[in-house]
Write a structure and sequence with these properties.
Elements: H1 3-13, E1 17-22, E2 26-27, E3 30-31, E4 38-50, E5 55-66, E6 69-78, E7 82-87, H2 88-95
Antiparallel strand pairs: 1-4, 1-7, 2-3, 4-5, 5-6
Length: 100
């Protein structure tokens, strides 16, 4: 799949709610020596690139949500550390016969 096609797909699903499973190198300022995986809920707001490493499409920027809505925080999730991303909206629609 080309970079351009990946970008098109990304922007088609932006604003859908996702549950991300992520294995960060650092978590809350501490090195993640144990390799723990953390769950985050949010919406994709942008992609990002890593100019230092010469990567054009390193991952996504996510606006985080909790039970009360947006938290005002964002996180960047690198593709190579993302364990999973589940589209919560699509899952809910499937559970309710396409009606939510």
């Amino acid at each position: 799949m080309t970079f351009k096609r990946k970008s098109v797909i990304l922007f088609e699903v932006m604003r859908d709610m996702f549950k991300f499973q992520y294995n960060p190198a650092r978590h809350n300022g501490e090195v993640n020596h144990a390799g723990e995986v953390f769950d985050y809920v949010g919406v994709i707001v942008d992609k990002f690139e890593n100019q230092t490493e010469g990567e054009d499409f390193s991952g996504v920027t996510v606006e985080l949500y909790d039970n009360e809505g947006p938290t005002g925080q964002t996180r960047r999730f690198r593709w190579d550390r993302m364990i999973g991303a589940e589209n919560i909206i699509n899952k809910a629609q499937a559970m309710h016969g396409g009606r939510i």
